[in-house]
UniProtKB/TrEMBL annotation:
Signal peptide: none annotated. The keyword Nucleotide-binding applies. It comes from Orchesella cincta (Springtail). PROSITE patterns: DNA_MISMATCH_REPAIR_2, PWWP. GO terms for biological process: mismatch repair. The lineage of its organism: Eukaryota, Metazoa, Ecdysozoa, Arthropoda, Hexapoda. Residues 1-96, 198-385 are annotated as: Disordered. InterPro entries: DNA_mismatch_repair_MutS-lik_N (IPR007695), DNA_mismatch_repair_MutS/MSH (IPR017261), DNA_mismatch_repair_MutS_C (IPR000432), DNA_mismatch_repair_MutS_clamp (IPR007861), DNA_mismatch_repair_MutS_core (IPR007696), DNA_mismatch_repair_MutS_N (IPR016151), DNA_mismatch_repair_MutS_sf (IPR036187), DNA_mmatch_repair_MutS_con_dom (IPR007860). This is DNA mismatch repair protein. GO terms for cellular component: MutSalpha complex. Residues 100-149 form the PWWP domain.
Length: 1355
């Protein structure tokens, strides 16, 4: 039978078992040694019996010609060059082709073909033996080594570019050896021997005379039985022929190694062994059918380059249930790696490998610290073509700087598309059919890592393989080109790992079986390159385009609770804001499926866009290519962790009309309404009212619809558009600072405001609201569900600004605090819930008829289909159990309401808004056996579960019943007992006794002793009808899982309302738990007021729960005991490290917490509603956007001056410190004066004491400072002072900042501090003198006193 080229031909053949005869084992070893493929580095084959074939090295060199330093070895005495070369006749007649001094290629197992020179063991010694079957060669190596090589493993050396020799250019030692050999080739034989002769220490065998021809000829040949029974004799004989190398196999621990040493090599001194090269070889994986490692093909072709892959692609006889076990591995060629102390180039091969071993040979690491970690590919930058590591590095047209896109545009072309690659036709046509598939897909998706399916395995090639090995800790396979892979079952884990690291991945599946391929070839007679398994891209995914796949393990989710948004942004210069722009945005979390569309005008700093990014964190942004303003470009460049994808205008970043036309035709057309589009209610806000069909956007929403078009195109390119758009979930986004319809109509116009407090990106960052070790979000987050966590983040980003709504939340939280026993019952139930919000999206696409019929996934062949089916069913069961738990939670709250424990209007609305799920859950409980379906991976519907299946089953039953009635009629007619015989296609044969006479309409079909069987037209009709009905039933049954999911998805709105209600309760419970977390908590009082105020008594930081924390009072715009009004503007001074910034952050967080509806850590908290919190805290530059520290300060201050209102809360820390003292003081003075006149509630901290003096007499400005206690105050030496910070804010300015104390605490030398203090005194004296002189001159000019008074001062 002719051998087929399959996947197995890529791997090494399994050596014979340990019980094989020595002679056969030796022969096998020699055969393998000569057939190592190019690029494979010819790894050794090591059987598990302990025999380790290796390079037969005799000794290491002692000295070189030219007087090199003598080297000692443990193999014997050193020898010196010199003396006459004694002519000794060779023991055998040497070959005419090979003589002493001849340059050859020599092949040893585990090594590539290596340049060498034939020479005697000693000067004039024998260079051949065994009738010229073996020759003694000296390898050109560093250090040089020697060995006896069989004639069959020798080839004449004609130069390093010999086409007949597989190159090993990945091995720099090999390249160096070739260079030496090329130089030697130009020399005459005598000169060559003289120049390159190395004197070696005699080996142990030579000293014992084991190498003599006489000893070999005198030794009587032994039978196989004698050799097996005489280990000593066998070992001795083998030492003459071939030494065994020591192989060290890395264990799972970096500190432990296990050595596999052949018994015959125990006496061999390891110092005589050839050192391993600077690369290691680990076993590649071997997905074989029969459990053995097949022989590696000499061409070293990839498994996908085989034209016949039927055995692998059919996936038969693979036991996927086995657990992988550890086997030794071989790494790929690696350019720069330290030499190991113990040789480890061997390639261990297991003789009998079960599925566990095969899977483990994929070299999939559980931890990155495994000692079997694979090498990372080197960059090809700066590598000469002849030294390139992999094939793709040697392709000139594929190198960076020389590439062209699919339209043959060079990289320097302005329209160059880096997502595509031009592949020359001559190269493309030279590849095998399967590899042509890969190159065709790669040329269209050059920026994507292709998971190329081959049988049960996903493969990586070329660039993708290098990336996969580096990022996934898998290893290269053998071959001249980069190649790696892993089993199908691991796709989800590896794909998610790459996406998390920012890569774009594509999953390519086989969409036909070998049987389908064979049938297609027979029927359609395709071209040669089409005679290959069909493959299609089924999924393209990035960090921003992901969804819960059926390939994910149903027991764990690959997603974090936080949403990850895909954005599309389009910008247009705004006519109304000369310095700003208008932005259209669309963003979506693809795991949930809601499209958010927005359009707004922004300032020159893109403040609203930055705030949007803070609220809804992007992980990927689409934008128009070449149409970014400098401001937006700098903003995007500064977001280093976000993937940015430029799209071509119009063709990819669609226009508004093109977008609406596509949506109307593909998704929103109502066939029953004559084809007119039926737009979702939320989406109609962006459509023009003048266009009845909705194919024109509103003039205020054109940019927003264009950004939607970009998202739709990208999702379409990723094959995910239908799954998301068919949900029809849209929301209109408006920035929080734009007044919406949600205002209070009863208020006067001047008090109308937005529904929410505005927290911009700067404030969220400066107050550490969302991120940081002590962020407000992490402090409040006690939620038990992932969808509850997402809702809590939304609430924190948008605190309420209407007192009535705030009061509703406060009432709900207080009641939850009062029913702690019931709450404690609910909390474990909440924690047990899965992410129902995301699972609803997953069930939607799993139930999609479009996906099963028109999506490539519907045609894909999965070899773990049963596991995936189990995952799908388990997901549905998990969702159903989750909603049953939701019903229990609501029931617990209903009982509390019935017992008058709950009166809150908010909780009441949640309870009443929760839909009735009992009927739906009962239906799915009765639809199928959940336990059996989960175990078998198949749903067998019960009666009433699926109407179509019930009809099909009823049809089969009716046909069978009719046939049974007809059989009774036949029995009566024939007056004999008649029965049906047969099964499947031979059913409905009427069996009657042979004595019964039948009419001519009966056609005899078969019989048995005493009986005959007949067909007639009626029974043939029954057979045809029932087979047709059964076929229809089976087709419905095959699709029943999808149909059950589709049935569940019909009530998606009902399920979604239930999730929203549970999420609200989860967040309220979380806030209630926080409200009990500290001893002293109070319910804030909020109100509207034309005179804004803030009164906090004994307030503490909400994120620091410590008994040692010092509370503080904060009063703005309120009356104190003497009925003197407090100013809204607080100038805060105090020593460095005295707690000014902490107090300011504390006030800001308490204000936000109050408007969340939560209790706050204070004795009393009263305030009028804050519409926005501004912060100017810390000193940070923005290098990415070229902004200095002072410029950042001024930008943030500009936003405050532009948007602050009397209802705002301002927190400004040390404004002006980024520039010269006088400039900074002047700017701080002007800003403070402006804001105080606006009557904004403000904290303004400063160390400018001149500023304090200038502002202290202004009305409604109160002076405060952070108190401290100074001991050993010394006006001459500040290093002797001891300062205790009291962290208490008291009235009045602070006389000093005590900066020298901070310097001393930071460790600055006392002498330096003294010098600085002395200089400070001098500067202070000069300034005071100038002030005094200015005051005197002013007084004289204004005639407040005379020169006589000046003279009395005695200055």
């Amino acid at each position: 039978m002719q051998k087929q080229t399959t996947l197995f031909s890529f791997f090494s053949r399994t050596p014979k078992s340990a019980t094989s005869s020595p002679s056969s084992s030796t022969s096998k070893s020699q055969t393998n040694g000569s057939s190592t493929p190019p690029g494979g580095d010819g790894d050794d084959n090591v059987s598990m019996s302990g025999e380790t074939p290796s390079k037969s090295l005799v000794s290491t060199p002692v000295s070189r010609t030219g007087g090199e330093k003598r080297r000692r070895t443990s193999g014997g005495q050193s020898a010196e060059l010199g003396g006459s070369r004694k002519k000794v006749k060779n023991e055998d007649s040497p070959s005419k082709e090979y003589s002493e001094g001849t340059l050859v290629w020599a092949k040893l197992e585990g090594y590539p073909w290596w340049p060498a020179m034939i020479r005697g063991e000693t000067h004039g010694g024998a260079y051949s033996r065994k009738s010229a079957v073996e020759f003694h060669v000296q390898f050109f190596d560093d250090p040089p080594s020697r060995a006896w090589i069989r004639k069959g493993d020798l080839k004449i050396y004609r130069g390093s570019q010999d086409a007949d020799i597989p190159p090993a250019r990945s091995d720099r030692a090999w390249l160096s050896a070739c260079k030496i050999a090329d130089d030697a080739l130009a020399l005459k034989t005598e000169k060559r021997l003289e120049k390159h002769w190395i004197e070696f220490t005699p080996s142990e065998e030579e000293n014992n005379g084991n190498c003599s021809a006489e000893s070999e000829e005198e030794e009587e040949p032994k039978t196989e039985t004698e050799r097996m029974e005489t280990p000593k004799s066998r070992s001795s004989r083998r030492e003459v022929k071939k030494h065994k190398r020591v192989l060290t196999i890395a264990s799972s621990s970096e500190d432990e190694e296990s050595e596999v040493v052949s018994k015959s090599s125990k006496k061999l001194n390891t110092s005589n062994l050839k050192k391993p090269r600077k690369e290691e070889d680990e076993d590649d994986y071997s997905p074989t059918k029969n459990g053995s490692l097949e022989e590696e093909s000499e061409s070293s072709e990839s498994l996908v380059e085989s034209e016949k892959m039927s055995e692998v692609e059919s996936g038969t006889d693979h036991d996927e249930d086995d657990t992988p076990k550890k086997t030794p591995k071989r790494s790929a060629p690696k350019a720069k790696q330290k030499l190991s102390a113990t040789p480890n180039r061997g390639s261990p091969v297991v003789s009998k490998v079960d599925m566990k071993g095969r899977l483990q040979q994929f070299n999939i690491k559980d931890t990155p610290n495994s000692s079997l970690s694979s090498p990372k590919p080197e960059s090809n930058k700066g590598i000469e073509e002849s030294d390139a590591l992999w094939e793709h590095m040697r392709l000139t047209w594929a190198q960076d700087g020389k590439r062209m896109d699919a339209n043959r545009r060079k990289q320097t072309h302005p329209d160059y598309d880096p997502r595509t690659l031009y592949v020359p036709p001559e190269y493309f046509n030279s590849k095998s059919p399967a590899m042509r598939q890969w190159w065709e897909m790669k040329s269209k998706h050059f920026d994507t890592i292709l998971f190329f399916k081959v049988g049960k395995f996903y493969e990586f090639y070329h660039w993708d393989a290098c990336t996969a090995v580096q990022e996934l800790s898998i290893t290269f396979m053998k071959g001249d080109y980069a190649h790696s892979g892993f089993p199908e079952i691991s796709f989800s884990r590896f794909a998610n790992t790459l996406m998390e690291k920012g890569y774009k991945v594509a999953r390519i599946e086989q969409t036909e079986t070998p049987a389908m391929l064979e049938k297609r070839v027979k029927t359609s007679k395709p071209a040669k390159h089409e005679k290959v398994i069909k493959r299609e891209i089924c999924q393209i995914a990035t960090k921003g385009v992901r969804y819960a796949s059926f390939q994910d393990d149903s027991s764990s989710s690959p997603f974090t609770p936080e949403s990850a948004y895909l954005y599309a942004i389009v910008e247009k210069s705004s006519s109304s804001t000369a310095e700003g722009s208008s932005f259209g945005v669309c963003f979506i979390d693809t795991t949930i499926g809601t499209f958010h569309i927005g359009e707004f005008e922004d300032d020159r700093h893109a403040s609203r866009l930055r705030t949007l990014f803070s609220h809804f964190t992007p992980v990927q942004i689409l934008h128009e290519r070449g149409k970014l303003s400098s401001c937006l470009q700098q903003l995007l460049q500064n977001m280093s962790s976000v993937r940015k994808d430029p799209l071509l205008p119009d063709t990819e970043f669609w226009g508004a009309k093109k977008t609406l036309k596509f949506l109307a035709e593909e998704y929103f057309r109502d066939k029953e309404a004559g084809g007119a589009p039926q737009w979702p209610p939320e989406f109609q806000a962006v459509l023009s009212k003048s266009d009845g069909l909705g194919l024109t956007p509103d003039e205020d929403w054109e940019l927003g619809v264009r950004s939607l078009g970009a998202v739709v195109w990208y999702l379409k390119d990723c094959l995910l558009d239908h799954d998301l758009l068919s949900q029809k979930k849209f929301e209109v986004y408006k920035p929080a600072d734009i007044s919406s319809n949600a205002t209070v109509p009863s208020l006067p116009e001047r008090l109308k405001r937005s529904k929410y407090m505005i927290l911009d990106g700067v404030t969220l960052r400066n107050l550490e609201i969302l991120e940081g070790p002590l962020s407000l979000l992490s402090t409040l987050d006690k939620c038990g569900t992932n969808f509850g966590k997402r809702l809590l983040r939304h609430w924190v980003c948008l605190p309420l600004a209407i007192p009535a709504d705030i009061c509703d939340r406060q009432d709900a939280i207080e009641e939850l605090m009062c029913i702690r026993e019931r709450r404690d019952k609910v909390v474990p139930l909440l924690k047990s819930l899965p992410d129902l919000e995301r699972l609803l999206t997953k069930t939607h696409y799993l139930g999609s008829a479009y996906r099963s019929k028109n999506h490539p996934d519907g045609r894909a062949i999965f070899f773990n289909e049963i596991n995936y089916s189990k995952n799908k069913i388990n997901d549905l069961i998990t969702v159903l159990k989750g909603f049953k738990t939701c019903v229990k939670i609501i029931k617990e709250f209903k009982n509390a309401k019935d017992e008058d424990e709950i009166k809150s209007s908010l909780i009441t609305r949640v309870i009443e808004g929760f839909p009735s799920l009992d009927k739906l859950l009962t239906y799915f409980d009765n639809a199928f056996d959940h336990q059996a379906a989960s175990k078998e991976g198949k749903i067998k519907p019960r009666p009433g579960a699926d109407e179509q299946f019930d009809n099909a089953r009823q049809t089969v039953a009716e046909i069978q019943s009719e046939a049974d009635e007809y059989l009774k009629d036949i029995s009566r007619q024939l007056k004999a007992r008649a029965v049906y015989f047969g099964s499947d296609k031979k059913r409905f044969q009427i069996e009657v006794p042979d004595y019964v006479k039948v009419s001519k309409e009966f056609e005899m079909s078969s019989g048995r002793k005493g009986f005959k069987r007949y067909y007639n037209a009626k029974t043939k009709g029954f057979l045809a009808s029932i087979m047709e009905a059964e076929t229809e039933r089976e087709e419905i049954l095959r699709d029943i899982t999808r149909r059950i999911f589709a049935q569940f998805d019909k009530d998606r709105e009902t399920w979604s309302r239930a999730v929203e209600c549970i999420a609200t309760l989860d967040v309220l419970i979380s806030l209630a738990i926080y409200s009990e977390s500290q001893d002293l908590m109070c319910r804030p009082t909020l109100s509207y007021s034309s005179l804004p105020f803030l009164n906090i008594v004994e307030g503490r930081h909400p994120c620091v729960a410590s008994d040692s924390y010092i509370p503080n009072d904060t009063k703005m715009g309120v009356e104190i005991e003497d009925e003197t009004p407090k100013g809204n503007f607080v100038i805060l001074t105090g020593p460095n490290m005295g707690g000014k910034s902490t107090l300011m952050r504390q006030v800001g967080l308490l204000t936000i917490l109050s408007q969340l509806g939560c209790h706050v850590p204070a004795e009393k908290c009263e305030l009028s509603v804050v519409d926005r919190v501004f912060t100017r805290l810390g000193a940070n530059d923005n290098i990415g956007e070229g902004e200095s520290t002072f410029f950042v300060e001024m930008s943030e201050t500009s936003a405050i001056l532009k948007h602050a209102t009397p209802s705002s809360l301002l927190l400004i820390d040390e404004l002006g410190r980024g520039t010269a003292t006088y400039d900074g003081t002047a700017i701080a003075y002007a800003v403070a004066k402006e804001l105080s006149e606006r009557k904004c509630r403000s904290f303004f901290s400063t160390h400018y004491h001149t500023l304090v003096e200038a502002l202290q007499d202004m009305p409604l400005i109160q002076m405060s400072h952070m108190a401290c206690m100074v001991e050993n105050e010394n006006e001459d030496d500040p290093t002797q002072e001891s300062i205790t910070f009291l962290y208490k804010m008291i009235s009045g300015p602070c006389p000093k900042s005590y900066g020298f104390n901070a310097a001393r605490l930071a460790g600055i030398n006392d002498d330096v501090i003294r010098v600085a203090y002395k200089k400070a005194k001098e500067l202070e004296s000069v300034v005071n003198g100038i002030r005094s002189f200015t005051a005197i001159c002013t007084g004289i000019q204004e005639k407040k006193f005379s020169m006589k008074d000046f003279a009395a001062l005695k200055i």
